């Protein structure tokens, strides 16, 4: 049996695994809410398929006055704990703390935080970015991976938009639920 390269699921956090509040900042435990199916189906993927998980998230201004660290970590830790209860563990949790206007290369859709995955023994073509935004799909393109656009009750982006953004070859599925993510990955054999 030949050694196979590791396949990854790069997973967005806000709006994908946990609910994104109107102010887009999860800075208290009270604001933490797992999205429907996230823990259950990530757990099933973890148990049944060979993917490794990497969380990639933009947290604008984390560590500054507008978003102090001590307000961030309790909810972040609790989320990881709830996922771990389902057997979901992340190889890495990568957090970009810049503001959009800084145009940092580490900020999604930039791959600045993901250099080791571009170089290392990974099957990026067989890997996916799962997220709720266009920038997640652009990240998939920049990695040479494919994107799973998870809409979770929001309006699904139409094919014209996907085409206009040059993401036709990147966006593999646009799906409304975590169950669909699971089913699609299962169908392709989770290979
Ligand atoms: Mg998001």
Polypeptide structure, described:
About 30% of the residues lie in helices and about 15% in strands. The model has no long low-confidence stretch (mean pLDDT about 95). The protein has helices spanning about 40-50, 70-85, 115-120, 135-145, 160-165, 180-185; strands at about 10, 50-60, 90-95, 130, 145-150, 170-175. Strand 5 (about 145-150), helix 5 (about 160-165) and strand 6 form a beta-alpha-beta unit. It has a six-stranded parallel beta sheet with strand order 3-2-1-4-5-6, sandwiched between helices. It has a single domain (about 10-185), classed as 3-Layer(aba) Sandwich (Rossmann fold). Helix 1 (about 40-50) runs parallel beside helix 6 (about 180-185). The protein contains six helices and six strands; from the N terminus they run E-H-E-H-E-H-E-H-E-H-E-H. With about 190 residues, it is α/β, with parallel strands linked by helices. Magnesium ion binds near residues 12, 15, 16, 131 and 133.
């Amino acid at each position: 049996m030949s050694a196979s390269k590791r396949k990854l699921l790069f997973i967005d956090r806000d709006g994908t695994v946990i609910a994104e509040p109107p102010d887009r900042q999860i800075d208290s435990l009270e604001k933490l809410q797992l999205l429907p199916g996230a823990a259950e189906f990530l757990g099933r993927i973890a148990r049944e398929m060979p993917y490794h998980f990497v969380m990639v998230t933009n947290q604008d201004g984390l560590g500054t006055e507008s978003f102090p660290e001590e307000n961030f970590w309790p909810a972040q830790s609790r989320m990881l704990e709830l996922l771990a209860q389902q057997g979901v563990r992340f190889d890495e949790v990568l957090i970009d703390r810049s503001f959009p206007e800084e145009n940092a290369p580490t900020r999604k859709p930039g791959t600045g935080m993901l250099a080791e995955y571009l170089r290392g023994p990974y099957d990026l073509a067989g890997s996916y970015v799962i997220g709720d935004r266009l920038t997640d799909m652009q990240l998939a393109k920049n990695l040479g991976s494919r994107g799973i656009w998870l809409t979770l009750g929001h309006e699904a982006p139409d094919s014209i938009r996907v085409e206009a953004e040059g993401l036709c070859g990147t966006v593999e599925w646009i799906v409304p639920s975590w169950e669909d993510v699971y089913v699609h990955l299962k169908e392709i054999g989770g290979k």
